[in-house]
Design brief:
The complex is a heterodimer of chains A (227) and B (595). Chain A is mostly helical and 227 residues long. Helices cover 66% and strands 1% of the residues of chain A. Chain A has five helices and one strand. In chain A, helix 2 runs antiparallel to helix 5. In chain A, 37% of the residues are buried. The N terminus of chain A is likely disordered. With 595 residues, chain B is mostly helical. Helices cover 60% and strands 1% of the residues of chain B. Chain B is built from 16 helices and three strands. Chain B has a two-stranded antiparallel ribbon with strand order 1-2. In chain B, a hairpin with a 2-residue loop joins strand 1 and strand 2. In chain B, helix 2 runs parallel beside helix 5. The N terminus of chain B is likely disordered. Classes of the chains: A mainly alpha (227), B mainly alpha (595). The interface between A and B is large, with 66 and 73 residues.
């Protein structure tokens, strides 16, 4: 093996002055922080942490709902007190709302991309589409609440029978996660207004939001078939 | 040279106020130390609880001074009731497993050293990281608050089997509010650990510095990464289980409570629940939890031994594959906790096979450690002694696992002290030895001062002998049929075993008191220890290239560049040193296995 004499000085990468972006928080040290608040100058070098972290988070959520699902299957087989209930009709509407919100979010994402590409006029419309997404998300949560009211009017409470127990637990847990997604959307809208939105933040929020839709469709089918 | 972007993100600026620096800090190092201190507080509480239990087991009718003041109902006249014994046992195990064995080796050391060892300035989501600690602390405080509710803490054990854990007050003292507090605390704890695992995984995947390929990551970084993967999937299952348990208590649901249950002549108004469901959910989390506790210790032991024997491990690849195998198999074997639970016997067979298989990666690890040690001149210091102690405990406790893995033998031994001895040695004490080894090894880096080696060695030998005196006899007690979870031994066949219990109790009290040496050494060295150099142990990984203690931004605003893996020991270099730091471009003259 070759010897190097004298050894070269250890290589260090000098980092630019941080005072400009000292408060920018997460996002990986490699790149992706807007310079002087202008995100159009960003160059992407490597995937930022949020792009993998969002999948890690989704994996954890999948495990939780897998646990709930296995609980439902085991509980159904454990006893003969399983009583089928008719799913509240409002769920069909709220499902469509959630699917529509995924579409509007994609539209918003494309508008933001166009803005990042230099089309100044897109900033207002991208914000509008984000607000539409937010509104549809809120309507979805309201729809879930309506579904609970419908069940309640039929005399089906959380502890009435195992089916209603699982229905309330599944919808409540999913709605909690959707509320988290709504908070993420609000954050995106705020950053867009401040000019500090990073594409990775928008992408991660979008992936999470689409996942909420996929998760709901799965839960809806599960509830439909099993409850 | 301009390989970083024009504007890299500083994760956070230097902390300016006391609160931001020491309390609500986003610095991974401060968070690591906060986790460590939480574990110290928790371990003291857990140990005192075990003392109380051991005194009661040795001298059942003896009054323990002051105990009545703590719990007038649980210990009238200072003599604990059988229920109170079970309550202390539940809290001892819960505190130790969650707030010591998970927080110290994984959350504390991992937070402090994972970003440094990967060459990052911080974790990718420092605010999540800060939340992770504060949420975990909240979980701890909620758990401990169970001591202060009227009925006291729950008595269903750390496994909290349903229906005992689900039916509420009728099941006994602590099974009302206490049990709800227990489940709530664990659900909170899960949130904290999920936030932590998210950060750990993202750090390893995305925050590595230039040249730090995955194969160059130090073994400890790998151990924390693998542990995070386990934590992510295991805690995500425990949380739903706890939510369902809480609902059974407070909302009248019947997830875990079967029909027609009569307790104390009282018909329980629930129906149709599955008691086995809780066990499945719990142990799907519970067995990986064992490896969450032990794998970081294995990483620390490998790291410490390699540094002190000045030679690479025989095969680092085999070690890493074994870690992965342990992690993967830990999900396949959980049913071995349920051999006597009424599960289908064929299921027992299915779970028995991977349980025996998991001994293979464990054995590979031990053989590599011992084989690598063969012929080396190990530098004997407290850290390396505790690493050797880890191997000793892991082997001694692991051997009894062969017996328990087989349903036909486990049926006889499951409810005895044999199992108590097994898991205390193999995951309790072994993991503690890993924590001690890591503490003595990294203390100079964390606090900038050396710990006292003489006191450390006294601490090691007394602890080593003491823990064998406590836990080896447990195996004998188990063979003799001594059932576990009994508060007193009044049966004729158990009476002859009481002197042995008294011996164990004395050993436990002495070994516990010996830990005061450690606490004295820890506090005294923190303020009066000899100043530590940057690299006191002549290690190769990146934590040793920075001052002790490191500055707030780790590498002083510069990103290191890595040229080697962390195993460059026993090499000949031009400078005469027998090791090459990971960030040194120097090549070995001979002896390196390079990469």
């Amino acid at each position: 093996m070759a010897t190097t004499l004298p050894p070269p000085k250890p290589e260090v990468l000098e980092r630019p002055d941080k005072s400009r972006n000292g408060s920018t928080g997460n996002g990986g040290w490699q790149n992706l922080v807007p310079i002087e608040g202008n995100f159009r100058t960003i160059e992407e070098y490597s995937p930022p942490p949020s792009s993998s972290a969002i999948w890690v988070g989704i994996a954890a959520i999948c495990m939780s709902f897998a646990a709930f699902t296995s609980a439902l299957i085991v509980r159904q087989g454990a006893s003969n007190d399983w009583r089928h209930i008719t799913l509240p009709s409002v769920l069909f509407l709220s499902t469509m709302l959630l699917v529509a919100s995924s579409v509007t979010l994609e539209v918003a994402r494309r508008r933001v991309a166009a803005y990042m590409g230099g089309v100044q006029s897109q900033v207002a419309s991208s914000r509008l589409w984000l607000y539409v997404t937010l509104g549809l998300g809120l309507l979805f949560v309201a729809g879930q609440y309506m579904a609970w009211l419908q069940l309640r009017s039929q005399g089906l409470y959380l502890a009435t029978n195992p089916n209603s127990s699982f229905f309330y637990v599944f919808t409540a847990m999913h709605a909690l996660h959707v509320l988290g997604g709504l908070a993420g959307l609000l954050r995106v809208i705020r950053k867009l207004g401040l000019g500090t939105l990073r594409r990775s933040t928008l992408n991660a929020t979008s992936i999470y939001w689409h996942f909420m839709g996929v998760l709901w469709i799965y839960l809806f089918l599960l509830l439909w078939m099993r409850i | 040279m301009h390989e970083v972007s024009a504007a890299p993100a500083a994760h956070h600026g230097p902390p300016t106020t006391f609160i931001r620096k020491h309390v609500f800090s986003t610095d991974h190092k401060v968070i690591g130390i906060q986790y460590y201190h939480l574990a110290l507080v928790a371990v003291v509480i857990g140990m005192v609880l075990s003392w109380l239990m051991r005194i009661h087991l040795g001298w059942t009718n003896a009054a323990i001074p002051g105990l009545q003041a703590i719990s007038p109902n649980g210990a009238p006249g200072g003599v604990m009731t059988p229920e109170y014994y079970l309550q202390l046992m539940t809290m001892h195990a819960t505190i130790m497993v969650f707030f010591v064995l998970t927080t110290a080796p994984f959350a504390a050391f991992g937070n402090y050293f994972l970003p440094i060892q990967t060459g990052a300035e911080d974790m990718p989501f420092p605010h999540f990281n800060m939340m992770s600690f504060w949420v975990t602390l909240t979980g701890f405080l909620v758990l401990v608050s169970a001591f202060f509710v009227s009925d006291g803490p729950p008595l269903a054990g750390w496994t909290s089997y349903a229906p005992l854990s689900a039916i509420g007050k009728a099941a006994g003292p602590g099974q009302g509010a206490g049990q709800v507090i227990w489940a709530t605390a664990l659900a909170i704890f899960c949130v904290g650990q999920l936030l932590g695992a998210l950060n750990f995984i993202s750090t390893v995947l995305d925050m590595r510095c230039k040249g730090m390929t995955l194969s160059r990551l130090p073994v400890t970084a790998w151990a924390w990464f693998i542990t995070s993967c386990m934590g992510l999937t295991a805690f995500a299952v425990l949380m739903p289980a706890c939510i369902l348990l809480i609902l059974d208590h407070v909302a009248g649901t019947s997830f875990f409570i079967p029909s027609g249950l009569v307790i104390n002549d009282q018909l329980i108004p629930h129906s149709g629940g599955s008691t086995l469901l809780w066990q499945h959910l719990f142990w799907f989390f519970g067995h990986p939890e064992v490896y969450i506790a032990i794998v970081p210790g294995m990483g620390i032991v490998t790291h410490v031994l390699m540094t002190n024997m000045r030679r690479p491990m025989l095969s680092m690849k085999a070690i890493l594959y074994s870690f992965w195998a342990l992690a993967f198999l830990s999900y396949m074997v959980y049913g071995h906790h349920m051999f006597v639970s009424g599960m289908n016997p064929f299921s027992s067979l299915v779970f028995s096979f991977p349980t025996l298989m998991i001994t293979i990666p464990s054995t590979i690890l031990v053989l590599i450690w011992i084989g690598s040690l063969y012929g080396t001149k190990l530098r004997i210091n407290t850290a390396s002694l505790f690493a050797l102690g880890f191997i000793s405990m892991f082997v001694s406790g692991g051997v009894s696992g062969f017996f328990l893995a087989q349903p036909s033998i486990d049926i006889m031994l499951h409810a005895t002290y044999f199992v108590v001895g097994h898991f205390h040695m193999v995951m309790g004490v072994a993991a503690m030895f890993g924590i001690f080894s890591g503490t003595y090894f990294w203390f100079p880096k964390m606090y900038g001062r050396m710990m006292d080696e003489t006191l450390g060695k006294i601490h090691f030998w007394l602890t080593f002998v003491g823990t064998y005196c406590i836990f080896m006899p447990f195996h004998y007690l188990g063979w003799a049929g001594n059932v576990r979870r009994y508060a007193a031994f009044t049966d004729d066949y158990l009476k002859p075993l009481i002197p042995l219990h008294q011996f164990i109790s004395v050993a436990a009290l002495i070994t516990g008191a010996v830990q005061l040496i450690f606490i004295y050494n820890f506090i005294n060295s923190r303020f009066r220890g000899a100043p530590a150099t940057a690299n006191p142990w002549e290690g190769t990984s990146l934590e040793w290239i920075m001052p002790s203690p490191p500055p707030w931004n780790n590498f002083g605003g510069k990103d290191p560049v890595v040229y080697h893996d962390a195993e460059q020991y026993g090499v000949k270099t031009a400078s005469g040193a027998d090791y090459i730091m990971q960030n040194s471009p120097e090549q070995a003259v001979s002896g390196a296995d390079g990469d």
